[in-house]
Amino acid sequence: MDKSQTLYEVAYLISPAYSDEEAQNFQQLLKSGLQSLGGMIDNEGEVIKRRLFYPIKKMAEAYLASFRFLIAPEKISALKSKLNSKEVLRFLIVETKRQPARIYRPRIAKIPGAETMIVPMERKIKQTETAAPKPIEPAANIEEIDKKLEEILGK
Predict the structure, then answer these.
(1) Exposure winner among 52, 54, 74, 76, fewest CB in 10 A?
(2) DSSP state for residue 37 in the 8-state scheme
(3) Per-residue confidence (pLDDT) for residue 142, from 0 to 100
(4) What is the pLDDT of residue 22?
(5) Transmembrane stretches, by residue range (predicted)?
(6) Three-state DSSP class for 33?
C-alpha cells in the first residue's frame, strides 16, 4: 500500500431502466477505470436491486452498488466524472478507515445460587430461570373483601 493513497468507499444507485447484466457491467467498467487511474480495489461489492424509500428522478427502484478502493486523493475528481453519467441516479464517495476484525468475547454471567456460566452475548439470562419459584398465596375470600369495602365506604 502506497502512503500517498487513501482508502475510500463509493456507493451509488444505477437506474432500473438497465438490466441486471448491464448494471454489473457498469460496475466492472467503473472498477477497471479506477484501476487505470492507479487505484486498487480493496473490497469487491455487489449490485443489488432495491426499492427506494423515496422516488429519485421519478424512480421507485434502483440497483445499489458499492465497493472500497485505494487511490490518490487528487484522482478522486476523475472518478466523480465517471459517476456523473446517465446510468447513475446518485452517488456518494467517503474517505474511510480499515475496521479492525471484531473479536467475539463471551460474557460471564453470575447468578446468585448457581455456578458461574459463560453466556453468549446475544442471550440474556433472566434471574427467574434459575431462582426457586415463589409460593402462591391463597386468594382472599369474597366475604372478607365485601366487609372491607363496606368499612371503607362507611355503610
Answers:
(1) 54
(2) T
(3) 82
(4) 92
(5) none
(6) helix
Distances (CA, A) of 82 to 79, 133, 155: 5, 68, 89
Q: Please report which confidence band the pLDDT of residue 154 belongs to, taking 50, 70 and 90 as the band edges.
A: confident
User: Higher confidence at residue 117 or residue 68?
Assistant: 68
For residue 73 the three cell numbers come to 486523493
**52 has pLDDT over 60:** yes
Rounded Cα distance between 72 and 43, Å, is: 17
Outline where DSSP puts E strands in the chain: 6-14, 40-43, 47-56, 59-71, 88-95, 107-109, 117-119
Dihedral of CA 115/116/122/126: which sign?
A: positive
Q: Which three cell numbers stand for residue 96?
A: 474511510
What does the alpha-carbon distance between residue 43 and residue 60 come to, in Å, rounded to a whole number?
28
